[in-house]
Design a protein that fits this description.
The structure is a homotetramer.
Chain A (H helix, E strand, L loop, with lengths): L3 E5 L9 E4 L7 H12 L3 E8 L5 E4 L5 E3 L2 E9 L4 E8 L6 H16 L5 E9 L9 E5 L2 H9 L3 E2 L5 E3 L1 H11 L3 E9 L6 H15 L8 H27 L11
Amino acid sequence: MKDTEINILEEIELNNPIFIEALPGIGHVGKLAADHIIDELDATKFAELYSYHFPPQVFVDEDGLVENMVNEFYYLKSQGEDNKDYIILVGNSQALSPEGQYQLSGEILDFVEKFGVKEMYTLGGLATGHPIEESRVFGAATDIEIIETLKELNIEIRSADGGIVGASGLLLGLGKLRNIKGACLMGETPGYFIDAEAAEAILDKLAIILNIEINTDKLDERAEETRKMISKAQKMEQEMMNKTLGSGEDDLRYIG
Amino acid sequence: MKDTEINILEEIELNNPIFIEALPGIGHVGKLAADHIIDELDATKFAELYSYHFPPQVFVDEDGLVENMVNEFYYLKSQGEDNKDYIILVGNSQALSPEGQYQLSGEILDFVEKFGVKEMYTLGGLATGHPIEESRVFGAATDIEIIETLKELNIEIRSADGGIVGASGLLLGLGKLRNIKGACLMGETPGYFIDAEAAEAILDKLAIILNIEINTDKLDERAEETRKMISKAQKMEQEMMNKTLGSGEDDLRYIG
Amino acid sequence: MKDTEINILEEIELNNPIFIEALPGIGHVGKLAADHIIDELDATKFAELYSYHFPPQVFVDEDGLVENMVNEFYYLKSQGEDNKDYIILVGNSQALSPEGQYQLSGEILDFVEKFGVKEMYTLGGLATGHPIEESRVFGAATDIEIIETLKELNIEIRSADGGIVGASGLLLGLGKLRNIKGACLMGETPGYFIDAEAAEAILDKLAIILNIEINTDKLDERAEETRKMISKAQKMEQEMMNKTLGSGEDDLRYIG
Amino acid sequence: MKDTEINILEEIELNNPIFIEALPGIGHVGKLAADHIIDELDATKFAELYSYHFPPQVFVDEDGLVENMVNEFYYLKSQGEDNKDYIILVGNSQALSPEGQYQLSGEILDFVEKFGVKEMYTLGGLATGHPIEESRVFGAATDIEIIETLKELNIEIRSADGGIVGASGLLLGLGKLRNIKGACLMGETPGYFIDAEAAEAILDKLAIILNIEINTDKLDERAEETRKMISKAQKMEQEMMNKTLGSGEDDLRYIG
């Protein structure tokens, strides 16, 4: 196995697909939204990405089966009124190291570019740290035309007092260097629980931008599942940090 | 020397051996169990793995001789009622970095696959952080058939609220991608002392799964030896962390 | 994309240009000074450097547009009484890892050496941690002749109780190994605000050394802009550190 | 420049030289001892090692001149009653990362092996953390014969409750894999000051082992110089750690 490997499960052809990314991040808002699209629109998994840059661990599922750290590519064909194709990237982890983050974002862009991707949306959360009455959606983009579109949809423009850390930011930035246009949509969230409302706010805006319909009735149910997954992921990450930073007796607690 | 190097001590042929891994981890439960198997069944060391990903240090043994950080491969032939061959991996350290963990697990799988390994068991501990009346054994596996077997042996199935960090998890996960089936057996342990009982609990289950006999009478004695080794290992790891994170005057205390 | 990539925007020829470096650092004194030179003398950007060693993030500008982490090369031709050419390196980030710092400094020197650079000045700040009446300029150099010149200009010589961490130090040190002569000029600054006076102190000395005129009237205005940019950069860096070191619930706050 | 580069200053031939290593470490005991040998016996520098694995910084000397992080190889010919040749390795830094430590130790061994090195002594300190009446010397070795020799010289054998972190340990361990025999001599030191007595204790033992004479009269004077150098080194290391771990406003204090 190379450092990073993409296993193709199904050979497909797509027509300039739109690329949607939502790897685990703040409040898992993006992941929740993307998992919902995959489920509602019945997307098909066609490739899996494994990497040495992921956390060195496995998850265990409800049945006791081990799950590798993985990013998964799904596709959708001829969706919505515009008959557009889509590639959706979800997964259970992001790269741990800065170099790994760049490396993986580069590999992911190399892969989706082969299908003719010219447009991308990355989905994430924006943590406020305090309760929110109604979740707003914030946006940033590679092009001023897209910014105008976001404004027309009452998406708040993420201003110069912040940035975007991790895959949602890097894919957009590195994509810009390859002339892939796109935006990052961030659902405002307190950040300390799995926020179905923030995900719904993103999905509502995304549906308009993409001119597709996404039923969000089952989103709450999905949020509950995600809550379980995340509780596990955080526990693992905690153990990982302990391992990296820990010492002496604490050491006894964290390697499986 | 390359980043990772495996020195062959004896050229051997094995018949689809079962692979058992038990590198240092929680409560050194797995290591204690595997060292005991090697001793009791008189396994033969046939290869040593050295790696730049190990902690940059040497141990010093009772005689004042330096010991490199190393993983060691032992073999056993025609064991138990099924006349099975075995490869057992033990050692005094695991890779420090996440990338190193993946790298080493990959190299180890490449190596054992050449001998025809199709089945593996990784041994570890599961820390409770509090005293235990009787050490239970927890399990996770790559296949639902193995899960069923574990359940029949009253092994608790590790459920979705956790995962497995380090070599015991990664070897199983990456092995699954190569169609090597297997399970991780984790002995419940308070985690803050070298737990011969947790190791015995694992050995009892493993003996049934593998259909071999393992006398555990001398396990307590071995636990005492391991205690000494671990005390040293922890001290080193502590020094390492200090070196990595330390500064200024503290600096004077930790580089040899 | 390779680990580090330099995109040429304009093919130029320069006559043994003097190389000036001022990447983000202490009090952003150097960056402020170099940005001011670029603005006042109307330097032209001719190359951009992108690297996997930068923080894995994007900034968002006033309009909501994403900005990649980048180092930028500008040139100036026939400046001052000596009709000298210049290459000026500025940017929004430095490499995160030690190896990345060396790697980038090496790539940068490879690049500027092709234009015939034999002389370099790296600009930075020296933090006192307390208020300063009048900002002094400290210097260190590759050659005793340059040290003499600095002394004649009332630049304090940085003595043996300190060193220079990061690009300003490494470029000078690695440059010395390639027979590029040079000095590092450090403006004394309290360190806890964007210090236009420290930048002005550096610019005054640099103007004399280089025999060019640099009007510093608009420096305060520029300091204000830099203040905004830095506030953003620090916030991102904070988020990055949290991500690297954080765990559990905190985790929810920082990945976009 | 490659990751690690050795610049040859003088082409020499040596006759199975004995290799002595003393890079900065605990109480700089080893470095002080080795610098003293170089000075007293008038050793000649013949090679310099530069590496991306060193801290990304430069030191500044008394004159304001920048000094790269470097390891330096010296040689001595036909010393003592046995007419032995020597290679002595000193320097101002060790690799920062674990992988870097292994990488550099490997490169160093590759280099000295070309001269026919079959025997090595690594010099270091052993910190007690409390005042010492008379500094003992502790030893560890690759061979039981050497252990016997050390015992005859009243060198305490470092027992199984410890190990040796960093270059002094790794060179010995990796050397052992290449059939280079050797020992590590560690001078007992409180650890919180530059300990000329610990260095003298090591030199006394080493002189007997090597059958050479080393006048230690000027050792105190040298200790004073080393004290200055170390104070600087520690300050830099502190700044480095701050840079790596720091955030936000603190950030302003540490990059040059």
